[in-house]
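re: ur question from yesterday

yeah so i grabbed the chain u mentioned. its 174 aa long if i counted rite. heres the sequnce exactly as i have it in my notes:
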Amino acid sequence: MKKILFLLILLSLYGCPNDEIITHEEPQEEAYSCCGENPFVSTNINILNEFLGQINVLTIVTPNNDAFNDHLIVDNLIHYPNNKLTIFDKNETVIFQTDSYGSTGIEDVFPRISDYTNNTLPMDGVYKYKLVIENEATFLEYGFICVITQDSDSLMSTVECNPNINPDPILTYN
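ran it thru and got these structure tokens back, copy pasting raw so excuse formatting
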């Protein structure tokens, strides 16, 4: 009994160094943006050996069938075929999901070619993505992409903050 009492006193004096419960909340809708720092950077994981090239998601998609940024581009992802890409709308509903993004043809890119022919392109706006390579412990990235289908003043400022975007006639540069 003395040993238990001694341990309880010792534990109460020193405690455990990690007693705090750490929680991470995703940003609210107001934080959804293609510009600036990725609000998920603290939750993203990258221990992938990127010897074949660094993974870089270009955050602007202009699906107007002019051959410029018509689909989501992820630099070097083709070298890492064991991947899964999921895209969510602002209500967290999955609107696109595929394994081996871009490696099997025209129906595993966002937006799909059938979205053009069926007139079911995503609406202008900001969408969240989740990219996993190998597994979530190796590479996990959340971020945002902007879809611009027409001259949209509310989204045009995203062009100025995204220097890696391919030139596209739908986007006006000041």
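noticed a couple things. Confidence is low (pLDDT under 50) at residues 4-8, 10-30. also The radius of gyration is 21 Å.
anyway ttyl
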